[in-house]
Design a protein that fits this description.
Order of helices and strands: EHEHEHEHEHEHHHE
Strand content: 5-15%
Number of helices: 8
Distance between the termini: 32 Å
Number of strands: 7
Largest sheet: 7 strands, parallel
Structural class: alpha/beta
Radius of gyration: 18 Å
Oligomer: single chain
Amino acid sequence: MELGLRNKVGVITGASRGIGAEITRELAREGCSLMLTARSAEQLNERVAETRALGSRASAYPVDLREPPAAAALLSSALAEFGRLDFIVANAGAAKTGDFLKLTDDDWHDGFALKFFGHMRLIRAAWPQLKANRGSIVIIGGVAGRTPVPNAMITGSVNAALLSLTKGLAARGTVDGVQVNAINPGPIRTERFAGRLHNLTISEGITEAEAERRYIEAGEITRIGEPTDIAGLASFILSRRGSYLHGALIDMDGGRTKTL
């Protein structure tokens, strides 16, 4: 489907693997020029090679967005490479899970450092460019931001903060001409999910197929999502077909979120 994204320039964080890698492939097929960032230079270079093989321009900028100067440096590199910026996909970040009483201050600081503060700094630095080009921001949050669970309190708190940021930025974006939306993925078949499933097979002495069936049943969901599901929605939001979406918090989770 032609989405009208050809020659648009974007930054994708957490682009090295999982959802970020699939969003990269999706947008490369649409003809976008992409600045890809994550902490792993080797994996980023693989994504750059894939993107170029699909006929699109791409460059890698390995950086740790937890460091305060990193966001501005990333933006400067993107502008030097491509000369403009039309969108940001804020995808990077994960937080430690576990017993609330055992999570340390450092665990909490680290959870917010990348996914919230790293993206906040990047969006703040990029806003003038996005305003000038009537650009777009897609924030990848998570369902725990809407339905907290006891063993993922850092994840839920960070994602809730991102959803609040989305709404606030959207209000500013209405005035400045910047589109801002968030996607809340449910369980997605990534390396992280595979590890979770593997642990279940060991602890319960069951096959992976049975572990997945139980996971789906316990979560009352239709199936486990694929990175392509999130990538397809992200590209739609960024396209002219999704331009009426603004300030939306979209749960793409197979029905896991039960609240209004």
